[in-house]
Structure formats: structure tokens, C-alpha cells
Amino acid sequence: MLDDLDRRLLEILVKDSRTSLKELAQQVGLSSPSVAERLRRLEDRGVIRAFTVEIDPQALGYSLQAIVRIRPLPGKLHIVQKLIEEIPEFGECDKVTGDDCFVARLFVRSIGDLDKLLDRIADKAETSTAIIKAQPIRRRPPPLAATAISKP
Amino acid sequence: MLDDLDRRLLEILVKDSRTSLKELAQQVGLSSPSVAERLRRLEDRGVIRAFTVEIDPQALGYSLQAIVRIRPLPGKLHIVQKLIEEIPEFGECDKVTGDDCFVARLFVRSIGDLDKLLDRIADKAETSTAIIKAQPIRRRPPPLAATAISKP
DNA sequence: GCCGCCACCTTATTTAATTAGGCACGGCCG
DNA sequence: CGGCCGTGCCTAATTAAATAAGGTGGCGGC
């Protein structure tokens, strides 16, 4: 489903998605049209979800991030979906199984803004256990190679 | 520090970082060399941290994600740094202020693997309050435009 | 054992990125 | 008030990359 060459290509692209086909080709030992074809298929299959840029939130003025736990009342799970759509400050949001809650990241400019957001969430949703300010110390994709814990 | 044109460029690139300079140029009403120059400066200033690809963890076999809370004993904060380096399953990890803990994402293939990892963390670090399995329902960058809460 | 398919190759063509050089606006100082 | 940088943009020319077309070999199915 995903051979070694694919993995090597992904590894390079995660580091720099502007790497040219030519460069990719010679790093894995293929021709550039072949690499292009492989990338196309990786996209088609959904392995590569998107080509994107990573932006520094601080550069946009979001000096603060909060990780919040949102627990809607039973049967009201859809409310979170709505909140995400309405509030652009939502970063990633994960539905957590077993606990019927969500864990989301909020990007904010100040504690004041955070308070306003939390009010708004607590208002429209049910309980939102506010949490905290966060300083990211690392951001990484899933591991591409075999790990000590498990082999692909 | 970051004008409207920059923001529009970023907005386009977040959606698809392979958008050509030519295409970017005509969308914002500049010439391609000017766009190139702007992008170069955005990178130099650290606004754009990286050009990258977003990979579907499932495609790599990581059908499970866990969000874990790690709270090292006082004075042992560096241990988390070490864990991150040693364990490729670590996704992003945030240092949380006020609570002296970390919140991290783990990519795993099975509950078994998760258990092994949690043991290893609880072993080397101090307390790790394991948490849960997560299903991402949305992944987003910080908001690029003004929001109802705050203006840039 | 032959047929057809798939993944790859090479070459040619089109398209995009880069480099070089020049022009206009605005700020600053004589 | 006028001249002089500096900056950000432009156009045009060059270089480099992506794409498209056509051909070959290896492998599985019939």
C-alpha cells in the first residue's frame, strides 16, 4: 500500500514541500515524471492531504494559545461543530472517545480575548472546562519510519 | 509589519502551497517577482516557518492518537524534551504554563502500542496522566483575518 | 507461452521561477 | 523647496522545472 520509496518521498516533502521533482527524483533514484506520478497517486489516495505552509502564530499576533476541554451535554455534540465554524480562533479540535469530550486549541492575542472566547463557548455549549496557556515546544507529523514500538 | 497583501498570500498558501507565483501574482495584483520577494521576506522573518505536506496518519498505519498530559516532578522538566527526541510517536507537544505540565499528541497503531509508550513515559518521566484516544475533527492554522473577538 | 498491464524510462514541449535592470513614489536632509 | 537615497514594484530575458507523449521491460493471468 505504501512502499519504501513513497516513504522516502514523504520524508523529504515534510521537511520541505517545495523540493523540486528533479531533486526528489535523484534522491530516491527515479526520473522526475515517475516521482510526479507517485505524488499524484499519494494525493489521490489521500495519503498526502495537502501541501501547505506552517505559519508562526506570533507573527499574526497570536501570542497565546489555549488548550481547552469542551464537554457538551449528551446529545449536544453537534454544538462543537458549530462553534468551530463560527470561531476562527479554533485550531485543531479532536473528539476524544470514552470521555465524550473535545480537546481543542485556541489561538488568542491576550488573556482578555481568551476570556471572551471561553464565555462564548460556555454560553453556547454546555460545560467547557477551560484550561491553560500553551507554549509549543515542538510540532511534528506522525513518524514515517518504523519505531522501537511498532513496525509498519 | 505584515500588510494586507501578505495576509492574502498566506491565506492562499495555507490552502495550497504549490500555488505558482504567477497564480499568486494575479490573485493579489502584483508581478511574480514581487510575490517571490514577499515570500522570501516572509520566510526570512519567520512568518512562514516551513513549506510542508500534511500527511494522513491513518495512511501510515497510525489509526489511533492519544492526547496525554505529562507532569514531571519539579526540576525535571528537561525529561520531556528527552522523551520527545527519543520517541518518534510524539506529535506536537506544548508546555502548559501555570500547571507545570505538558500536553502532547501520540500517534500509535494500537492500544497495545499506546500502553507500551505510556509505560515508557511513566517510567522515565514522573507522572504521566494518560488520557485518551482522539479522532481529529478539524485541523486549522491560526486565523489570518480579523475576528469578532479581536482585530490585528 | 502469449497477452496485456503497470511502472518506469527518455525526449520534447510547455510553463514557471529567477535574474537583471530600470522607474516611480516617499521620506529626509541640505 | 529641491535634490537624493531607499524601497518596492515593474518588464524583459534567461534559466530551470513541470508536463506530456511515446516507448520498453518485467510480471501475473489466461
TrEMBL record, chains A, B:
Q: What is this protein called?
A: AsnC family transcriptional regulator
Annotated GO MF terms? sequence-specific DNA binding
Alphabetically list the UniProt keywords: DNA-binding, Transcription, Transcription regulation
Q: Which SMART domains match?
A: HTH_ASNC
Q: Which residues form the HTH asnC-type domain?
A: 2-63
Matching InterPro entries, A to Z? ArsR-like_HTH, AsnC-type_HTH_dom, Dimeric_a/b-barrel, Tscrpt_reg_AsnC-like, Tscrpt_reg_AsnC/Lrp_C, Tscrpt_reg_HTH_AsnC-type_CS, WH-like_DNA-bd_sf, WH_DNA-bd_sf
One Gene Ontology CC term in the entry = cytosol
Name the domain of life: Bacteria
Name the PROSITE patterns for this protein: HTH_ASNC_1 (PS00519), HTH_ASNC_2 (PS50956)
| Gene Ontology biological process terms in this record | regulation of DNA-templated transcription; response to amino acid
Q: Which CDD domains match?
A: HTH_ARSR
Q: Which SUPFAM superfamilies match?
A: Dimeric alpha+beta barrel, Winged helix' DNA-binding domain
